[in-house]
Design brief:
Elements (H helix, E strand, L loop, with lengths): L10 H21 L5 H8 L3 H7 L3 H25 L4 H16 L8 H9 L4 H27 L9 H22 L3 H15 L4
Helix pairs in contact: 1-2, 1-4, 4-7, 5-9, 6-7, 7-8, 8-9
């Protein structure tokens, strides 16, 4: 996969590129990365010449979709984690995530996780980009855990980043089972287990 070329775009050009990218993200979310350029062009109502003006090739588009989905996921997570300072805050975080799943049409859908399943073993740059995205997410969790330690709610001898990995793995695993079963219960159980682990390190 190649890096996207820098483009100097007009306001109209930026809107057109954004429309192509949003359509591609939706199609790949619904149908997988096998979605073709022709399908994207038809759904976005653009010609191939327009497509290749904004994206070098299909791989360039996939790279941009990963970035878009990562930004979208982290934009949702950031405010949920920003006020977490204690175990009650972690319970509120858990409840917000569960509620998001209750109100979505795609049980357990995590666009970043779905892309990771499809691409991590097939494309080096895609794997690198996905790894960076999950690292950023893990860092957000780690920052919230550090605030929880500083508040005195958790012991100071805990391995913050190991717990951040644990939380992220519990969340992703719960989302996968949630999607497979069409039921939010596995996500609830997974996150409750993670919070129980946190509580075991209470100061």
């Amino acid at each position: 996969m190649t890096e996207q070329r820098p483009l100097k775009l007009t306001a109209k050009g930026r809107r057109t590129r954004a429309r192509i990218l949003e359509v591609a993200a939706r199609l790949m979310y619904d149908n997988g990365v096998a979605t073709s350029v022709d399908q994207v062009c038809a759904a976005a109502e653009v010609g191939k010449s327009q497509f290749y003006h904004y994206f070098k090739d299909k791989s360039d588009l996939v790279y941009a979709v990963i970035k878009l989905q990562a930004d979208s996921v982290l934009r949702v997570q950031a405010p949920l984690l920003s006020d977490v300072h204690d175990l009650a805050g972690w319970r509120a975080w858990r409840n917000e995530i569960v509620q998001l799943q209750r109100h979505t049409d795609y049980w357990g859908a995590c666009p970043l996780g779905a892309l990771a399943v499809e691409l991590s073993g097939r494309d080096r740059l895609a794997r690198h980009t996905l790894t960076a995205s999950f690292d950023h997410w893990e860092d957000q969790l780690g920052c919230a855990l550090s605030r929880t330690v500083e508040s005195g709610a958790l012991r100071r001898d805990i391995d913050v980043m190991a717990l951040a990995t644990y939380l992220l793995a519990a969340l992703q695993g719960g989302l996968v089972l949630c999607q497979a079963r069409g039921d939010v219960r596995p996500l609830e159980v997974s996150l409750d287990g993670a919070l129980a682990q946190l509580a075991s390190h209470a100061a």
